[in-house]
Write a structure and sequence with these properties.
9 helices, alpha/beta, 9 strands, seven-stranded parallel sheet, Rossmann fold, two-stranded antiparallel ribbon
Length: 257
């Protein structure tokens, strides 16, 4: 799918992987609508996108909020062609810690944002995309890119909820792609490894370097958000990507902690 003059929603767009993705899609000529909950960062994003985009305070876990966000996107720009789910949290807790069980509120929050929130956006985005006229030799109408994680199969200590949520994102990729193939909509997931995002920004340099030394094969560094965004753009533009999860991890192998 050609990006020029297309309309793309990016969740978690006010920081990290989402912001880099919003920038990359805008640079490719798309009109970008950023979903996030951080009002201050949304203002910064809105200023950067200018008249060619929107920044909306949307809660991906809330049905009405996402429905309204998709409606506003279509009302503003006439259609929706691309949806990229980057919103996520990594709250951690051990299954049993000092005799106390994993707090169910933490579990529910992580699953709600990472997994349910992803599917909530997928279903409303697909509804809008299905109304598009078919494009090109393949009759394509839309592309959905979701964010999984290497933690889906290499979860560390304390990552039960996070790993389960990301495994769920991987697991829904094929059946949702099968559901939407008759509508000309592709569905792909990316499983990033260790990236320099806000989730690791607070680490002391010696700690982050230790992680790199022990877990990352080559290149011997953490990933950059722009590298994730570049892959998103390639997936959108390469119509033969569908129903798969792509590892973007420099050969990283997670250790238990």
């Amino acid at each position: 799918m050609e990006l020029a003059n297309k309309v793309a929603i990016v969740t978690g767009a006010a920081s990290g992987l989402g912001m880099a993705t919003a920038r990359a899609l805008a640079a490719g000529g798309a009109r970008v609508v950023g979903f996030d909950r951080d009002e201050a960062k949304l203002k910064t994003l809105a200023a950067e996108l200018g008249a060619g985009g929107l920044a909306l305070n949307i809660d991906v876990t809330d049905e009405d909020s996402v429905r309204e966000g998709v409606r506003k996107s279509v009302d503003a720009f006439g259609a929706l062609h691309v949806a990229v789910n980057c919103a996520g949290v990594a709250d951690a807790a051990k299954t049993l810690s000092k005799g106390e069980p994993f707090p169910l509120a933490v579990w529910n929050k992580v699953i709600a944002i990472n997994l349910t929130g992803t599917f909530n956006v997928v279903r409303f985005a697909a509804q809008a995309m299905a109304r598009n006229a078919p494009e090109g030799r393949d009759g394509e109408r839309g592309v959905i890119v979701n964010t999984a994680s290497g933690a889906a199969w290499q979860g560390q200590v304390g990552q039960a909820a996070y790993s389960a949520s990301k495994a769920g994102v991987m697991g829904l990729t094929l059946p949702v792609a099968r559901d939407l193939a008759p509508n000309g909509i592709r569905v792909v997931a990316i499983a990033p490894g260790l990236f320099e995002t806000s989730m690791v920004a607070g680490m002391p340099e010696n700690v982050s370097q230790s992680i790199i030394d022990r877990m990352i094969l080559y290149p011997h560094r953490m990933g950059q958000a722009e590298e994730f965004a570049s892959l998103v753009r390639h997936i959108v533009e390469n119509s033969y990507f569908n129903a798969t999860t792509l590892n973007l991890d420099a050969g990283a192998r997670m250790q238990s902690r």
